From TrEMBL:
<protein>
    <submittedName>
        <fullName>Uncharacterized protein</fullName>
    </submittedName>
</protein>
Length: 96
């Protein structure tokens, strides 16, 4: 997987674009994401059902992964079972 790859959730409607990636498995709703949408959706894990927000970037604690949500859904994003969080916006420099 490389930056620019578009992944689809197999558990809900979530779609993300990979900005930065490491060597783990990107998951949504507790199930691994794929490049193609399956015919039958996997069940949504209760631990990973907080949802995703369109246009937000999701990162891990180390900064090895960064995903851009291009289509929201009910599942939460994670990498190898570790939840990703919304990336904070960079503060603009003060102008005097």
């Amino acid at each position: 997987m490389k930056p620019g790859t578009r992944l689809k959730s197999v558990a809900d409607d979530t779609e993300v674009m990979v900005i930065r990636t490491g060597g783990g498995t990107i998951e949504c709703g507790g199930s691994p994401m794929a490049e193609a949408k399956p015919a039958d959706l996997a069940p949504l894990a209760a631990d990973f059902s907080a949802g995703t927000l369109m246009g937000k970037r999701y990162v891990d604690a180390d900064g090895a992964y960064e995903l851009l949500c291009v289509k929201p859904g009910k599942g939460s994003l994670s990498v190898d079972g570790v939840a990703l969080v919304i990336k904070d916006a960079k503060p603009l420099p003060a102008s005097d």
